[in-house]
Structures are given as structure tokens and as C-alpha cells.
Write a structure and sequence with these properties.
This is Inositol-1-monophosphatase. The protein has seven helices and 15 strands. By secondary structure, the chain is α+β, with helices and mostly antiparallel strands. The protein has two domains: 145 residues, 2-Layer Sandwich (Fructose-1,6-Bisphosphatase, Chain A, domain 1); 106 residues, D-Maltodextrin-Binding Protein, domain 2 (3-Layer(aba) Sandwich). Strands 4-3-5-6-7-8-9-10 form an eight-stranded mixed β-sheet. A five-stranded mixed β-sheet has the order 12-11-13-15-14, with helices on both faces. The protein has a two-stranded antiparallel ribbon with strand order 1-2. The chain starts with a helix and ends with a helix. Bound molecules: L-MYO-inositol-1-phosphate. L-MYO-inositol-1-phosphate binds next to strand 5. The site of L-MYO-inositol-1-phosphate has 16 residues, from strand 5.
């Protein structure tokens, strides 16, 4: 078994266990533990408990690896592998009881810096639907045992696209302007609220493309591999301003360049 397949298998097993814990905690009622970067940026006790579980399972299985998690931060390892984890992606959906949230676990190699690392394995588990999306570099993307491919063509009615908005209200004007620039190429826009699932849906052909500015590394580390292993394209457009709100675009190659151009135009 290649290292990528070994890491994928570990990510799948832990994502499933962690996702089931998140699902059970949801049925028991969810408590908001704190707010982070903005009033709208919440963390629940379940986020913290699920990340502790994931971190413990990874440490048991691969002691020398590094870790970068949304809730417990970064720790450099001794190996070339770093795990990039969002324990509950779509936290606001989760807190409101909207069944659209995912456990996102990615294994990256190289410098543990977004845009510099190479994702070699990833799993995105959707506990509400029981869907396990997974990929290992060079081995394709899968939903269970079904191979995934992005859409080979896009309707003459336009592309079905997804996007998202930052937690910081001061970023909303720019986000809405970006939607306005992209709308002419779209048949419709979806705002699912969980980036990892948006990526998984592009990889599955349920969406033609997805764009968002301001995602955290753990939001896109696993999902971007799903898309590229499903034949899609992914761009991480680094924003070197002090705001560091990087733009990501993921789409079928049929519309990728056009979507990047529209999403990037007039960005300040
Ligand atoms: C969320 C993303 C979503 C984005 C939100 C937030 P979280 O991640 O999945 O796409 O629009 O602003 O970043 O906070 O639920 O892990």
C-alpha cells in the first residue's frame, strides 16, 4: 500500500468515528462554547471534543506527524506529514441543527503552510447523510466505492455554483460584489455553509464550481484534493495584504478559468 493510501485509510477511519461523535452530540443538544474572530464565528463544545478525539487517534497511529487544527492550533512534527483538521466544518449549520456539516481531515507533506504544502490524502465525512468522500493523490476521488468525476460539460443555462461569506461583516460588501461579477455565468448560486461539502459536491458533479474568499486552511485542505483527483481544477490565490483573505476557486475545467477571472476581477 502506498503512503497516500495508508494515510487516506487512516483519515477515513478517524473521520467516521469523529463524525459519529459529532452526530450524537448534536442529538443531545449543542452548547456554544465561545466566539472567535467575530460574533458570528462560533465554536461549540462538540467542535472541541471532536478535535480532541481526532488528535488523540492521529497521535496514537502516527506519533511523529505534525498537526494543524481549527480549535487546538498547530504543532510541528518530526515527520514530513502534517494533519490539517476541521473537526466540524459548517459549525453554524451544526449549531442551528441544519444537517450540512462535515469532518475534514487532510494529510499534507512539506512545509505546513497553505499554498506551499502538497495534500496527499483526505477524507470528508458528512455525518447527517453518512457520505464518506475520500481521495489519495494519484488514486482518484471516491464516494464510498463509487469513483467521482467533475462535470464534463455545463448547461447552456449557466453553471451551478456555490460560494460563502466571511464571519467578519466588513468583508460582506466585497463578497457580494464578487457574486455580482460571477452571476452572469451562473444559472444559480448555492450557499451551503460548509466548504468541505462544497468541494465534495464539485468533485461529485453536484456543483459545477465553488469560490470563496477567506477560508481557513482546514476548510480547503482535504476538499481541494477531492476536486483535483476527480479531474477538477483548484486555485489558491494568495492574498499578501494584511488581511490575508486568500481566494479559492474549484471547478470543472470547462468553466475554471472563466470563474477565476470573474472571481478575481477588481479585487482590492
Ligand atoms: C466555514 C466554512 C464556510 C465559510 C464559513 C466558515 P467553519 O467553516 O465551511 O464555507 O463560508 O465562513 O469558514 O467555521 O464552519 O469551520
Amino acid at each position: 500500500m502506498t503512503l497516500a493510501k495508508e494515510l487516506e485509510s487512516l483519515a477515513v477511519d478517524i473521520a467516521r468515528e469523529a463524525g459519529e461523535l459529532a452526530r450524537v452530540r448534536r442529538t443531545e443538544g449543542v452548547a456554544i462554547a465561545a466566539t472567535k474572530t467575530a460574533l458570528a464565528d462560533i465554536v461549540t463544545e462538540a467542535d472541541r471534543e471532536v478535535e480532541r478525539l481526532i488528535r488523540a487517534r492521529l497521535a496514537d497511529a502516527r506519533t511523529d506527524d505534525g498537526f494543524l487544527g481549527e480549535e487546538t492550533g498547530a504543532e510541528r512534527g518530526q515527520s514530513d506529514v502534517t494533519w490539517v483538521v476541521d473537526p466540524i466544518d459548517g459549525t453554524v449549520n451544526y449549531a442551528y441543527g441544519i444537517p450540512a456539516y462535515g469532518v475534514s481531515i487532510a494529510a499534507v507533506i512539506g512545509e505546513p503552510t497553505p499554498g506551499e504544502w502538497e495534500t496527499v490524502a483526505g477524507a470528508v465525512y458528512a455525518p447527517a447523510s453518512g457520505e464518506m468522500f475520500r481521495a489519495a493523490r494519484g488514486e482518484g476521488a471516491w464516494l464510498g466505492d463509487q469513483p467521482l468525476t467533475v462535470n464534463a460539460d455545463v448547461s447552456a443555462a449557466g453553471a451551478l455554483l456555490a460560494t460563502g461569506f466571511g464571519y467578519d461583516p466588513t468583508t460582506h460588501a466585497g463578497d457580494l460584489a464578487r457574486v455580482g461579477r460571477v452571476m452572469p455565468m451562473a444559472r444559480d448560486i448555492r450557499r451551503g455553509g460548509a466548504a468541505s461539502l462544497d468541494f465534495a459536491w464539485v468533485a461529485s458533479g453536484r456543483l459545477d464550481g465553488y469560490f470563496e474568499r477567506g477560508l481557513a486552511p482546514w476548510d480547503h485542505a482535504a476538499g481541494s484534493l477531492l476536486v483535483t483527483e476527480a479531474g477538477g481544477s483548484f486555485a489558491f490565490v494568495r492574498d499578501d495584504s494584511e488581511r490575508s483573505r486568500h481566494l479559492i476557486v474549484a471547478a470543472t475545467p470547462v468553466i475554471f478559468e472563466r470563474l477565476v477571472d470573474a472571481a478575481l476581477a477588481d479585487e482590492t
